[in-house]
Amino acid sequence: MTTTAPVDDPTASPAGGPVEGAEQARHVPHRWRNLATLTGVTVVDSTEAGLTTTLFPTISAALRLNTGQLGMLAALGKLVAVPFGPGWVWLAGRTSRRTALIAATVAGGVFGIIAGFANDFTHLLIANTLMAACIIGAGPISNSIISDSFDDAHRGRAVGYFYGISALLGSFIGPLVAQLSGFSDGWRYGMWAIGAICILAGLGILVFYREPGIGAAERQLADLSSKDRRGQKVTFASVLSLFKIPTFSIMMASRLLSGHLLIAVFGVQFLVTERGFTNAVAALVLLPFGVGYFAGTVGGGWIVTLLDRVLPRRGRVAFIQCAQILFAVIAFFGTQFHYSEIGVYAVFWALMGFAQGLNPGVNRPIVMSVVLPELRGQAFAIFLTVFETIGWALFSLGAGVLAESLGIQTVFLWILVGLMLVNAVVLSALYVTYPKDRARVTDELEERRAAALS
């Protein structure tokens, strides 16, 4: 007789069969409610993180700042994530993922409110950096929860909904907040409002989130007890061993080459300083960018699911390569030519949003499928808060300095176009490593199941 105990019940019997385990993995309890709750947190967190960038032309006028200081704000706001991202994941392991999410979100909201009181660059820099140190924790923890809530066949779609919906809602909030730039000290009210909403989102986690349990969405582990699912205790050595996974190392290198991240930092500033639009008008491109990003993430998640059926071993690799090339082509025509109407730029921003949105629905599932369940939180901390952060910070700081002498348009040519094509070439190595690394994880989970049932 097979067990009918919930997958997150630590007393669950390990006697269930593979059919029951696969069925439980496909139907982890509360997975859609958790996804909706995490998406709500991501909306306010990402909006608060991007608020300084969106309103920077107005902030720079009020506090007499320059483009180089925008780069410094963005760079330090990302660099601080390098120690704090893994730190939040460590806290989640020592307490719970719910506790860590609430602490990160509420603290981020508090520092966002403090940033609204800034009267000089130093005050703004400190508050903005501390805000970023807090809200960065939501990303890796949320991705690890998604990997434990949805099986491999459905993770692309779940990640697509997660990033797509949050970006779509954020794209409405961004232009709305930008309209405050027309009022005296309007940027302060924007930061105060988003900070308060961020705190409320933390309370939403407290009320609606339910822990799925490590490995709950793996067919080999779903019907086992929590103890049998967890595997070895996570140590510093086991985290470092992630870099022995060839696919993981290639994906980390790819994050350092992800030049498309720069459009979020300098996109509005580019349209203001080099195309002559006002802050409020330039910020209008955030809406079509968000709509395009939504279409890319959601549509991309469905495409990845289809490719898994047609090309199960290498379909994801071909897809992520095409995403890099597509973005480079669109960025070239969207940033290297002058257009008089904001509507034309809105179209290109929508297309760039679409191309950029294709990435989360494939790169997150790739990482999830080559890393053991208990190490996915740490893997995403490295992926999202270390390598992506270092790349983003270097792009932001370097572009901010170079833009002062070369102009943002030239910087965009080298980073949004040239570097993205290089990234596509680097990802070619996945055709060799990805099938092997994915098979290795499957074999290890099968061995874990066999040991638990013996």
UniProtKB/TrEMBL annotation:
Pfam families: MFS_1
Compartments where found: Cell membrane
Transmembrane portions of the chain: 70-92, 99-118, 124-146, 158-177, 189-209, 252-272, 284-305, 317-336, 342-358, 379-399, 411-432
Residue ranges of every copy of the Major facilitator superfamily (MFS) profile domain listed in the record: 34-436
Annotated membrane topology: Multi-pass membrane protein
Stretches the record annotates as Disordered: 1-26
Keywords recorded for this protein, A-Z: Membrane, Transmembrane, Transmembrane helix, Transport
Domain of life: Bacteria
UniProt protein name: Major facilitator superfamily (MFS) profile domain-containing protein
Organism annotation: Microlunatus ginsengisoli
